[in-house]
UniProtKB/TrEMBL annotation:
Coiled-coil annotated residue ranges, if any: none
Span of domain ABC transporter: 12-248
MF terms (GO), sorted A to Z: ATP binding; ATP hydrolysis activity
Domain of life according to the entry: Bacteria
Functional note: Part of the ABC transporter complex HmuTUV involved in hemin import. Responsible for energy coupling to the transport system.
Keywords (A to Z) from UniProt: ATP-binding, Nucleotide-binding, Translocase, Transport
UniProt keyword annotation of Cytoplasm present: no
Name listed for the protein in its UniProt record: ABC transporter ATP-binding protein
Matches recorded under InterPro entries: AAA+_ATPase, ABC_transporter-like_ATP-bd, ABC_transporter-like_CS, P-loop_NTPase
Amino acid sequence: MSAPRDRSAGPLEIRGLTAGYRHRPVLHDLTLPLLHAGQHIALVGPNGAGKSTLLRVLAGLVEGRGSVRFDGFDLLRVSAMQRAQRVAFMPQSLPQDVTLSVLDGLLGALKASPMSPPVETMEDAQQRGIAVLERIGIAHLALQPLQHLSGGERQLAGLAQAIVREPAMLLLDEPTSALDLRHQVTVMSLARALAHEGRLVISVLHDLTLAARWADQLIVLDGGRVQAMGAPTAALTSTLLSRIYGVDARVEPCSFGYPQVIVDGTRDRVGEGDAR
Ligand SMILES: Nc1ncnc2c1ncn2[C@@H]1O[C@H](COP(=O)(O)OP(=O)(O)OP(=O)(O)O)[C@@H](O)[C@H]1O
């Protein structure tokens, strides 16, 4: 699966977006520069910053006011079917009580929304499913019930469900949170490869070093507002980390030149015994 796309989707344009829960806004009049297909964007920021809320607005799970357009479509008003043809969302975790096998979960995802080119036969659908599992490195789990998987395996199965429809925009909510070091790199390099094939991929990440290594651009959110945006080397600074996370941190290039974040302690010395 996932040859380069015939046509890159048009950009994502977010202007004046206000969104939240029960009259409590979380995102405040959010405006971003155009986000173009072909890029892997990491959405980072402290707990409660509004990162998942932004992904949920794009996925149609939370309502918003303002303007959100992707590939010419008004994402605040498109039908669920039109959205599903373009956008796939991987939540933080799949439910734990699903008795379907990993492969049947993929077939269900394929059935749930038509894709282009369409899946013609069950054999075609199975081949696509297996190809995705192989790309993620979990083909050996194809016949396992989802409920028998470990947390990390379930996260990889969730990623497979999101990418099997080959969406033009892929939204990944903390896709590496349950993964070991090797699988973190597998998933991040896959996210970047899928983007460079012509998709827009947005990943919510907490690990800033991972984000800086594998994303083309960072968007730093705090309090529902953009605090910084740009190439990782430009967006990540000690001053910013101190201000939004309250930590003493250094941003230093690793031997490959990518920025890595080293945290020396919390600025207010909370939990000093652990942090220092
Ligand atoms: N379903 C909900 N109902 C009400 N409030 C919610 C709901 N989901 C999130 N919130 C609130 O919205 C705010 C932003 O939450 P969100 O999940 O977008 O943050 P986040 O940046 O993804 O955080 P984290 O890094 O902790 O996952 C939080 O204050 C949270 O309490």
